[in-house]
Amino acid sequence: VLQQRIEQAMQYDDLHAVLAFDIRDVAGAIKAAYVLERCSGQWTMMKRFIRLAFIHRLTPPNATLPLMLSADALPSASAFDELPLSMAVYKSIERTLNYRGTTLVLQRGNNCGYRIGDHSFRVMALDELPADHPYRSTHEESDPVICYVDWLYPSFTAFATWMVVTRWSDQEGVGQKEVLRAYVGRDDTRFQRLLTAGDVPEQLGITADDRLEGADLTVA
């Protein structure tokens, strides 16, 4: 029955290409089933993160996709009560991530914040955002707005994606090739279309939105 639950959850979120579980006993099967079912629907963006982490060699040197997770190392049930679900999903894979010798585990930081590696951030509550802030309309408790230094990200998954391509992108042995760079003003119709396009299909690219806010959130 447990194996059937795991398989159904894997199929529902289409995870077979990116994740696999090393399950040694019944306790491990129970943990794997719980994590998959509790986070159902939260894996879509994290699947993209896993692929990017693999491309940028943040995963173990001998790792392949699907990324193998030890069921014994999965977060406890309490983590899913204490964290937004997207961050709990990240904790499920954090022990496989390393950047230049620094483990990329999610930890509690100072002032009710969090830390991954050397980078500290905090979760923004909905009532901290001005009434007309664009991130209010997309705010989800399961994948909340993140504040990092003077930048805001519409979700934790957007923040994690942005970190891979900007802060953890130069792992030893990783090459980068810039295909296109273009600057457009905020009044440009192409910019407006991008803002209102919704999710960009992964075959066209992986996007991560952010806004430079500074100390005053009322200033766009």
Secondary-structure blueprint:
Layout: H1 2-12, E1 19-22, H2 26-38, H3 43-55, E2 67-70, H4 77-82, H5 85-93, E3 98-99, E4 102-103, E5 106-108, E6 114-116, E7 119-123, E8 146-148, E9 151-153, H6 156-166, H7 189-196, E10 211-212
Parallel strand pairs: 1-2
Antiparallel strand pairs: 3-4, 5-6, 6-7, 7-8, 8-9, 9-10
Strand content: 5-15%
| Main β-sheet description | 6 strands, antiparallel
Percentage of residues in helical conformation: 25-40%
Distance between the termini: 52 Å
Shape estimate: globular
Number of DSSP helical runs: 7
Work out the count of structural domains: 1
Indicate the structural class: alpha+beta
Strand order of the largest sheet: 5-6-7-8-9-10
What Rg is obtained from the alpha carbons, in whole angstroms?
Answer: 18 Å
Low-confidence stretches: none
Order of helices and strands: HEHHEHHEEEEEEEHHE
User: How many E-type strands?
Assistant: 10
The quaternary organization reads as single chain
* Mean pLDDT over the residues: 87
